[in-house]
Every structure is written in C-alpha cells, then in structure tokens.
Task: structure prediction
Amino acid sequence: MRRSLFACGALAGVCVAAACSQGQRANVGVTEPIQVSGGQFISGPLPGAPAVDGGGELDGGAAGPLSVEEVTFNNVNVIPGASGKSFGGVVTSDAVAVGVRLADLGSGYWVVPVAGRDTQVANASDFAFNASFDIDDPPGPRPLSIVAIDASGNAGTQVDTELCLEWRIPDNNHTCVPSNPVPAVVFSLQWDANFDVDLHVITPDGTDVNPKTNPLAVPVDAGEPPASDPKIDRDSLENCVPDGWRQEDLVFPDYPATGPYDIYADPFAACGQAAVRFVLTIYEAGSDGNLHATFTQAGELLANAQTGGGSTGLFIAEKQFN
Result:
C-alpha cells in the first residue's frame, strides 16, 4: 500500500509517515489512547495491508520484504494511565520507520524511525519506542498494530501484537484473565488533580485503615499479609509526587466482617492545588462473577482544609455489611 508521507524534521531527518496529500497536518496526539515518546502523530488509518490471521505470531526472519519480523516487550498487561512502557523489535532492512496504533482506538497512528542495522540478524534493522496509555482507555484485550514503512512511503503488512488493558479498579486481573475470581468488595476513591488525598476507612472494630499509617485492615506481626486480608493498594501522590493514579482502593478479597464501615476522604496535602474533586465508588461482586458499582458519592476538598494527617478528613458515607 502506498501513501503520501511527510515527517522530515520531527523524525531526525527521516522522511516518512504523514498523510499530507490532502493538506492534512500532523499534530502531537496528546489526547490519543496511546502516546509514543519521540514519535510523529499522523491522523488517519494505519497504512499497510491489514494483519493476516495469526498476525502476532512472528517467524523471526522468514518474513517477506518490508516486514516486521519481531516485537518484544515485558508484559502483555497494560494499565490505562501508565507511562514509559518499552517496546522494541526487528524489521527488514528496507524499512526506515514503523507505524504504531492501538487497534480500533483513536484518530491516527504514530511513526518512529528505526534505530539502525541489527547486529545479530542479517538484512534487518532494530526499532524501539516508549509508549504511554490514556487513563480513559477501555479495559480488555486490545491489539497493538505495527507496520514497517520504507523511505518512499510504502507500508508492508501490519502485525497485531496482543495486549490487554487492565481495569483500573483492582479486580484480580479478571478483565484480562476471566478465570481469576474478582474481590468480594472494593472501596475506590478517585480524584481529578495532583492533590494528596487519602482514603480512610474505619472498620467495625474501630481500626483506621489508611495508606499513610495502616494500609492493612488486619495487623500482621511479621512477613507478608495473607492474600485474603483486606488492604489499601497504594498511597497515591505520596509526598506530592505524581504517580499517574490519583486513586486509592481498599480491596476485600473475601466478604467483609459484619458491621458498619465509615469512609472518609482526607485532604492530607494540597500540593499547590486550590481544590480537588473526588468520587467514591463501592464495587461488589455479582452473581455473574464480575464487579458492579453499588454506591457512588462525589465531593470536593479545598486546600485550606488540608490536614497533614491530623484527622480522617471529610466523612463521605457509611457502608453496612450484614
């Protein structure tokens, strides 16, 4: 497949990849479901022939001209909002760049120049890039499509490498591995600015479960807590360091002990923000084996109410388990 391509300056002198034949201009793609560091974003469909069945099964050298021969990365699972995930691979030596797109999402694709000739594989070149994923990417299996592009703008056959976008709500990776059982209950606190908000839950026995001083609902004297013990998964924005999450979750793998659970949002530190809006959602396992939202409450915290850990913060709701 042939396209009119243009991306000279942005790709260090490599002239490839931008569909400008109709006056279309490249943009930075900051709202795209995937962002590729150092890549050029091009609006429109990924060039090249669609991936054939088994397009992710690469044969390491038997591919034809202008082909992606190998794609490498560490983990098939991706968390929406994550940044800096590394990808690499090998293309035939007639390629000067690769095009990259998260299949069926977004309005275009990214172009990245190859890094140079491969020292281990004859007549081949290496490519590498780091990718970030948008926080709103829908969870579930999602191919990453990659295609080799030559200096004249020709594109080969796309290769689909299977990824799975995890659900940001901790579901024991059930979204990607449906045989994994979901937790019984999850209290999830999310917010919209880089403000150090802490989830506090007062359990029926009076324990204050929170990420700063006591993330475990059941104290453990030594070693790792049992996997079945409820706990908070992270201290997001600790020391005001952005972590891409702005979310804390208290996860109950098994059904919680009987009694009331009081839930608070603590504005621990404003981190230079004037205010922050939050949403508390309670998820419970349904008879279908999936997590379902059973309660939602939104609110706002102001910088002048920051506590520094001196209190549990703003009371949101009480959840009763029988």
Notes: The chain has two domains: 9-165, 185-321.
